Structure prediction request, 152 residues.
Amino acid sequence: MKLTDILGRDCIRVPLVATEKLGAITELVDLLHEQGKLGDRDVVLHAVVERERTRSTGIGNGLAVPHGKCAGSPKLVMALGCARPGIDFQSKDGQPATVIALLASPVDQTGPHIQALARISRLMLMDDFRKAIADAGSADELFEIISRHESR
Prediction:
Protein backbone atom coordinates (compact mmCIF):
# COMPACT_ATOMS: atom_id res chain seq x y z
CA MET A 1 0.00 0.00 0.00
CA LYS A 2 1.13 3.51 -0.81
CA LEU A 3 -0.05 6.42 1.28
CA THR A 4 -0.49 8.46 -1.90
CA ASP A 5 -3.21 5.96 -2.90
CA ILE A 6 -5.35 7.10 0.05
CA LEU A 7 -4.07 10.65 0.53
CA GLY A 8 -4.95 13.34 -1.97
CA ARG A 9 -3.22 16.71 -2.22
CA ASP A 10 -6.57 18.28 -1.30
CA CYS A 11 -6.51 16.49 2.09
CA ILE A 12 -3.24 18.02 3.29
CA ARG A 13 -3.03 21.18 5.39
CA VAL A 14 0.29 23.02 5.79
CA PRO A 15 0.23 24.49 8.36
CA LEU A 16 -2.70 23.46 10.54
CA VAL A 17 -4.67 26.34 12.04
CA ALA A 18 -5.37 24.39 15.25
CA THR A 19 -2.96 24.61 18.17
CA GLU A 20 -4.36 21.84 20.37
CA LYS A 21 -5.25 18.16 19.95
CA LEU A 22 -9.06 18.27 19.65
CA GLY A 23 -8.84 21.24 17.30
CA ALA A 24 -6.33 19.46 15.06
CA ILE A 25 -8.48 16.31 14.91
CA THR A 26 -11.58 18.37 14.10
CA GLU A 27 -9.72 20.38 11.44
CA LEU A 28 -8.53 17.23 9.67
CA VAL A 29 -11.95 15.53 9.85
CA ASP A 30 -13.51 18.71 8.45
CA LEU A 31 -10.93 18.73 5.64
CA LEU A 32 -11.94 15.18 4.68
CA HIS A 33 -15.61 16.17 4.89
CA GLU A 34 -15.10 19.28 2.71
CA GLN A 35 -13.49 17.08 0.05
CA GLY A 36 -16.47 14.69 0.03
CA LYS A 37 -14.49 11.77 1.48
CA LEU A 38 -16.82 10.99 4.40
CA GLY A 39 -20.32 9.58 4.62
CA ASP A 40 -20.99 11.18 8.00
CA ARG A 41 -18.61 13.79 9.44
CA ASP A 42 -20.03 13.67 12.95
CA VAL A 43 -19.80 9.88 13.21
CA VAL A 44 -16.16 9.97 12.07
CA LEU A 45 -15.25 12.81 14.44
CA HIS A 46 -16.87 10.95 17.34
CA ALA A 47 -15.03 7.69 16.49
CA VAL A 48 -11.62 9.40 16.25
CA VAL A 49 -12.11 11.43 19.44
CA GLU A 50 -13.32 8.37 21.37
CA ARG A 51 -10.31 6.36 20.16
CA GLU A 52 -8.02 9.19 21.28
CA ARG A 53 -9.65 9.26 24.72
CA THR A 54 -8.94 5.54 25.17
CA ARG A 55 -5.24 5.91 24.43
CA SER A 56 -3.23 8.71 22.90
CA THR A 57 -2.14 8.26 19.31
CA GLY A 58 1.03 10.29 19.82
CA ILE A 59 3.62 7.82 18.54
CA GLY A 60 6.78 9.87 18.99
CA ASN A 61 9.34 11.34 16.60
CA GLY A 62 6.92 14.22 16.06
CA LEU A 63 4.12 11.97 14.78
CA ALA A 64 0.52 11.50 15.89
CA VAL A 65 -1.91 9.24 14.05
CA PRO A 66 -5.43 9.83 15.36
CA HIS A 67 -7.69 7.25 13.79
CA GLY A 68 -11.07 5.63 14.00
CA LYS A 69 -13.11 2.88 12.42
CA CYS A 70 -16.79 3.56 11.92
CA ALA A 71 -19.75 3.53 9.53
CA GLY A 72 -19.19 7.23 8.75
CA SER A 73 -16.31 6.46 6.40
CA PRO A 74 -17.19 4.46 3.27
CA LYS A 75 -13.52 3.53 2.64
CA LEU A 76 -10.07 4.11 4.12
CA VAL A 77 -9.26 7.82 3.92
CA MET A 78 -6.44 9.98 5.22
CA ALA A 79 -5.84 13.65 5.99
CA LEU A 80 -2.45 15.04 6.90
CA GLY A 81 -1.48 18.23 8.68
CA CYS A 82 1.74 19.89 9.79
CA ALA A 83 1.55 21.64 13.14
CA ARG A 84 3.89 24.56 13.68
CA PRO A 85 4.71 24.66 16.49
CA GLY A 86 3.87 21.11 17.48
CA ILE A 87 0.77 19.95 19.37
CA ASP A 88 0.82 17.94 22.58
CA PHE A 89 -0.49 14.43 21.83
CA GLN A 90 0.99 12.91 25.01
CA SER A 91 3.61 11.01 23.01
CA LYS A 92 5.77 8.51 24.86
CA ASP A 93 8.89 10.52 24.03
CA GLY A 94 7.31 13.69 25.47
CA GLN A 95 7.79 15.59 22.20
CA PRO A 96 4.96 17.50 20.50
CA ALA A 97 3.49 16.17 17.26
CA THR A 98 4.43 18.21 14.20
CA VAL A 99 2.92 15.75 11.73
CA ILE A 100 -0.65 14.61 12.31
CA ALA A 101 -1.96 11.87 10.04
CA LEU A 102 -5.65 11.18 10.55
CA LEU A 103 -7.10 7.90 9.29
CA ALA A 104 -10.74 6.87 9.10
CA SER A 105 -12.04 3.59 7.76
CA PRO A 106 -15.06 1.31 7.86
CA VAL A 107 -15.18 -1.16 10.73
CA ASP A 108 -14.67 -4.11 8.36
CA GLN A 109 -11.42 -2.80 6.79
CA THR A 110 -8.91 -3.63 9.50
CA GLY A 111 -6.15 -4.84 7.15
CA PRO A 112 -5.75 -1.66 5.07
CA HIS A 113 -6.14 0.44 8.22
CA ILE A 114 -3.23 -1.38 9.91
CA GLN A 115 -1.12 -1.24 6.72
CA ALA A 116 -1.55 2.54 6.53
CA LEU A 117 -0.59 2.96 10.20
CA ALA A 118 2.53 0.86 9.64
CA ARG A 119 3.50 2.73 6.47
CA ILE A 120 3.24 6.14 8.16
CA SER A 121 5.26 4.92 11.12
CA ARG A 122 8.02 3.49 8.88
CA LEU A 123 8.38 6.72 6.93
CA MET A 124 8.63 8.74 10.13
CA LEU A 125 11.55 6.61 11.28
CA MET A 126 13.64 8.04 8.43
CA ASP A 127 15.57 11.14 9.50
CA ASP A 128 15.69 12.61 5.99
CA PHE A 129 11.92 12.19 5.61
CA ARG A 130 11.19 13.92 8.94
CA LYS A 131 13.49 16.81 8.02
CA ALA A 132 11.97 17.17 4.55
CA ILE A 133 8.39 17.31 5.81
CA ALA A 134 9.34 19.70 8.60
CA ASP A 135 10.58 22.07 5.89
CA ALA A 136 7.59 21.61 3.54
CA GLY A 137 5.98 24.93 2.72
CA SER A 138 2.80 23.72 1.06
CA ALA A 139 0.43 20.79 0.66
CA ASP A 140 1.79 20.12 -2.84
CA GLU A 141 5.35 20.05 -1.57
CA LEU A 142 4.44 17.68 1.27
CA PHE A 143 2.60 15.36 -1.14
CA GLU A 144 5.66 15.26 -3.43
CA ILE A 145 7.96 14.46 -0.49
CA ILE A 146 5.75 11.52 0.50
CA SER A 147 5.56 10.34 -3.10
CA ARG A 148 9.36 10.46 -3.52
CA HIS A 149 10.03 8.57 -0.29
CA GLU A 150 7.43 5.92 -1.07
CA SER A 151 9.01 5.13 -4.43
CA ARG A 152 12.39 4.33 -2.87
In short: Residues 3-150 form a domain with the Mannitol-specific EII; Chain A fold (CATH 3.40.930.10). The mean pLDDT is 94. The chain has one domain: 3-150. The two ends are 13 Å apart (CA to CA).
